[in-house]
Amino acid sequence: QKEVEQDPGPLSVPEGAIVSLNCTYSNSAFQYFMWYRQYSRKGPELLMYTYSSGNKEDGRFTAQVDKSSKYISLFIRDSQPSDSATYLCAMSGISGGSYIPTFGRGTSLIVHP
Amino acid sequence: DAGITQSPRHKVTETGTPVTLRCHQTENHRYMYWYRQDPGHGLRLIHYSYGVKDTDKGEVSDGYSVSRSKTEDFLLTLESATSSQTSVYFCAIRPGSEGDTQYFGPGTRLTVL
Which chain B positions have a beta carbon within 8 Å of A51's beta carbon? Predict the structure, then answer.
């Protein structure tokens, strides 16, 4: 079992839908949880990060962490075609001070007009 | 824009030749990372640096070496390129002000024939 599991998709939704992207993990030491968006042929860009459990909202995006279930989610409200991209989750804990996140393999999202 | 540039952006080379990729940052962050990204594998850490002349290996370091003689530059060298090293290479920095979040460069697309 990989440390971080993420369904590769693709996930195809109509414009305006609520999108739920998820990752599960096995290492209970993870404390920082990040979501990145990667457009085709571009570098990943940081969307949101949270520390420990709870929710965080930024515009149409909500990140949710459930440490008891070892499960994190990214919700996108009123999805737009411009949201079509690959979404990577990442997580880390302090491990010898190396600060190396563990990435999921990414979920491809397609929002069609 | 995290002030990260990578050069070259595209390169085609032949098996057995040495190749050096450069990552340059403008904000003097201590931590820098080299990843490769391949379909089905996601992002995999090659090497990272935690200061000038301080580097360590990642999960896929075989066939790669790095150097960091200045804070702003992190070089990745393929001593003798092989076709299995055809990939997209991303450099990243860790600002440290937002947990373990990383900011990525635009990537270098390397093809080894």
Answer: 99
Q: Which residue has the tokens 């540039």?
A: B5
Nearest to A74 by CA among A1, A28, A3, A7: A7
A13-50 residue pLDDT tens:
999 999 999 999 998 888 899 999 999 999 999 999 99
Q: Is A68 helix (H, G, I), strand (E, B) or coil?
A: coil
A98 contacts B101? CB cut-off 8 A: no
Q: Give the dihedral of Cα atoms B23, B26, B30, B34; nearest 10 deg.
A: -20
Q: Do B100 and A43 lie within an 8 Å CB cutoff?
A: no
Secondary structure of residue B24 in the 3-state scheme:
strand
Burial class (CB in 10 A: 0-12, 13-18, 19+), A96: exposed
